[in-house]
Specification:
The chain is mainly beta and 146 residues long. It has one domain: Sandwich (Immunoglobulin-like). 11% of the residues lie in helices and 34% in strands. A five-stranded antiparallel beta sheet has the order 6-4-3-7-12. Strands 1, 2, 5 and 13 form a four-stranded mixed beta sheet that branches. The longest helix has 12 residues.
């Protein structure tokens, strides 16, 4: 009887990282009120949110995005997430033998956004997925407010 009860509790609790159904998450990223194209938006589980959840999206030319979960499905499970926005910038060599504007091999790629937007450990961006279907507005500013 105890074994049946234990197995039942495990089944009810769910298996490794199943925190519920993915809920649709979409939105727009702007910088100084202008859409940001080709930016990567990542959602990192925070607090009590299932640590195996999370997701990402890439913005279109209009700054809009639709999130895919880490499991390849559309949306995210309910919970709180740290959000990052990043966009790699090409590092170019001005005086290289390949000529001005050549891409430098073996050099770290610079991010167009500061760590308070692009680094999960430092981000000031967060979002709670509730399933309300309202698009997220991620409004970035070129100068950080104090």
């Amino acid at each position: 009887m105890r074994l049946v009860l234990c197995v039942s509790l495990i089944v009810l609790a769910g298996c490794g990282g199943n925190g519920g159904p993915e809920l649709p998450v979409s939105g727009i990223v702007t910088l100084d009120d202008k859409p940001v194209a080709d930016a990567t938006v990542r959602f990192f589980p925070d607090g009590d949110t299932d640590p195996t959840s999370g997701g990402y999206a890439v913005t279109g030319t209009d700054g809009k995005f639709v999130v895919n979960s880490a499991k390849g499905k559309k949306g995210l499970i309910a919970g709180r997430y740290k959000v990052t926005v990043s966009k790699a910038a090409n590092i170019q060599a001005g005086d290289s033998e390949q000529g001005a504007g050549a891409i430098v091999e073996g050099v770290d790629i610079k991010d167009d956004f500061p760590p308070y937007y692009s680094n999960p450990a430092q981000t000031v961006l967060a979002y709670t997925v509730t399933g309300d279907g309202k698009p997220i507005e991620i409004k970035l500013e070129s100068k950080k407010k104090k």
